[in-house]
């Protein structure tokens, strides 16, 4: 994902120059550096500290986000961090407090790029216009071809499901107040996690959202969203690339991953971030506080998962708890089989 961000900034965004890139795998860093004309660094810490770097985009492993964002704040450098802002509520809260202590224009932006997807933006606008009356329920799906390695049932929520968490609250302009987690029969294709999962999200306005997250759906990458209202429904158009009509049958194709589906969203998000930096105005992207709120909801879902699927209230004002005795700050979230 980091390489794709660098390509977007280099080839599609005005007002920005990709000065430096860093990756734990030096060959990847050098390949992207050659492609973008950037300087490759051996570590994120070196890149962040470089006097030639004015702002930082973080697309590293989730577990590295908190330390890297904190390093940017220490040097007063604006930072766009891919979701999640950090793996735990405690880490997110610390970043919010660190930013607040600095004051001025917030430095942290969080990469919930679906907010910039033209279809989601039109959906939000039509809901605001009352196109289907009062929303009652949302039916959403998040499906990948194959799960990424090094994950478990909890990371399905904190890395993939967190998109649905943010976009649901954003569409309805209402915070998620309670959640529950449910497990259908699990696929035999991935023994590391429960897959698929069914997430129930109830916002403060009473709307219930159901989300199926299926990371090994095999048939293609697909995101669905339908809002049922008192006077009708409105949904995202199907994301297939083409439809072939032949021999009394219609066949449609799907993207293999997120890139063709959300290319415009990533480009528009990056341009909005750069425009805010060059004009010295507040970033229109998701805030650190919104990133914290999304992780609160994700942790509530993991709690529901680990306690049999019961409903868990989300207290968006509750301070985070203490770190775990082993110092992991709650990162070792369990999962079921």
From TrEMBL:
InterPro entries: Gfo/Idh/MocA-like_OxRdtase_C (IPR004104), Gfo/Idh/MocA-like_OxRdtase_N (IPR000683), NAD(P)-bd_dom_sf (IPR036291). The keyword Oxidoreductase applies. This is Myo-inositol 2-dehydrogenase. Belongs to the Gfo/Idh/MocA family. PANTHER family: BINDING ROSSMANN FOLD OXIDOREDUCTASE, PUTATIVE (AFU_ORTHOLOGUE AFUA_2G10240)-RELATED, NAD(P)-BINDING ROSSMANN-FOLD SUPERFAMILY PROTEIN-RELATED. It comes from the Bacteria. Residues 308-337 are annotated as: Disordered. Keywords: Oxidoreductase. SUPFAM superfamilies: Glyceraldehyde-3-phosphate dehydrogenase-like, C-terminal domain (SSF55347), NAD(P)-binding Rossmann-fold domains (SSF51735). GO terms for biological process: NADPH regeneration.
């Amino acid at each position: 994902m980091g390489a794709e961000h660098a390509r977007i900034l280099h080839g599609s965004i005005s007002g920005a120059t990709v000065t430096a890139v860093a990756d734990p795998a030096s060959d990847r860093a050098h390949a992207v550096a050659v492609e973008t004309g950037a300087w490759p660094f051996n570590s994120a810490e070196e890149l962040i500290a470089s006097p030639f770097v004015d702002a930082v985009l973080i697309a590293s492993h989730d577990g590295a986000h908190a330390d890297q964002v904190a390093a940017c704040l220490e040097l007063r450098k604006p930072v766009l961090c891919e979701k999640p802002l950090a793996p735990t509520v405690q880490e997110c809260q610390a970043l919010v407090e660190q930013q607040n202590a600095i004051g001025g224009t917030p430095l942290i932006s969080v990469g919930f790029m679906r907010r910039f997807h033209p279809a989601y933006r039109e959906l939000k606008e039509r809901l605001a216009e009352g196109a289907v009356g009062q929303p009652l329920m949302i039916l959403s799906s998040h499906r990948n071809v194959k799960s990424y390695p090094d994950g478990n049932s909890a990371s399905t929520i904190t890395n993939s499901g967190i998109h649905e968490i943010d976009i649901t609250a954003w569409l309805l302009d209402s915070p998620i107040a309670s959640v529950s987690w449910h497990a259908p029969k699990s696929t035999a294709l991935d023994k590391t996690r429960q897959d698929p999962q069914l997430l129930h999200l109830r916002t403060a306005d009473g709307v219930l959202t159901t989300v199926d997250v299926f990371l090994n759906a095999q048939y293609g990458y697909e995101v669905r969203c339908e809002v049922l209202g008192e006077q009708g429904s409105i949904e995202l158009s199907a994301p297939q690339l083409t439809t072939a009509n032949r021999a009394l049958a219609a066949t449609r194709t799907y993207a293999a991953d997120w890139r063709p589906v959300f290319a415009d969203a990533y480009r528009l998000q990056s341009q909005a971030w750069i425009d805010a930096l060059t004009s010295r105005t507040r970033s229109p992207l998701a805030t650190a506080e919104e990133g914290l709120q999304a992780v609160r909801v994700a942790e509530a879902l993991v709690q529901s998962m680990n306690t049999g699927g019961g409903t868990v209230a989300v207290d968006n004002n509750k301070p985070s708890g203490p770190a775990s005795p082993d110092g992991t700050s709650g990162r070792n979230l369990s999962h079921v089989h």
